[in-house]
Design a protein that fits this description.
The protein has 125 residues and is α+β, with helices and mostly antiparallel strands. The chain is built from five helices and five strands; from the N terminus they run βββααβαααβ. α3 packs antiparallel against α5.
């Protein structure tokens, strides 16, 4: 199973509405196990990340006002990819694990930019 990255908007009544994603768009935020083994890992927490580590305990709802913080967090993690890949559990080679983390960060970043454009948020679940 895989974590999904979606963009949402809040309706006037507060209800969350997910935006439709074209069928050919890959929207994985990593394997389900990455909640704890990557995003919630000590390696990521030690860098000062505060949003993505929340996935260790629950789905992550990044409301519109937090999206800039999510983008900063993605940029921070991207600058430490080698350390994160080396310091987290991996079923593949270090290079493959690093590439997988980099791909997932790109997906999260693209979703965050789309959310910024429309005044929405990002859900990773």
């Amino acid at each position: 199973m895989s974590l999904l990255v979606d963009v949402f908007v809040r309706e006037p009544n507060g209800k969350l509405r997910l935006l439709e994603v074209p069928a050919d768009v890959y929207q994985s935020g990593g394997f389900e196990s990455w909640r704890t083994t990557v995003w919630g890992s000590e390696s990521v927490r030690a860098l000062g990340a505060r949003l993505l580590p929340r996935l260790a305990d629950a789905d992550l709802y990044v409301e519109a006002e937090e999206v800039p913080a999510l983008l900063r967090e993605v940029a921070l993690l991207r600058t430490h990819l080698d350390a994160i890949a080396a310091g987290t559990e991996r079923p593949r080679t270090l290079a493959e694990h690093r590439a997988g983390i980099e791909d997932r960060l790109r997906i999260i970043e693209e979703s965050a930019h789309k959310a910024l454009e429309i005044g929405g948020g990002v859900l990773i679940w």
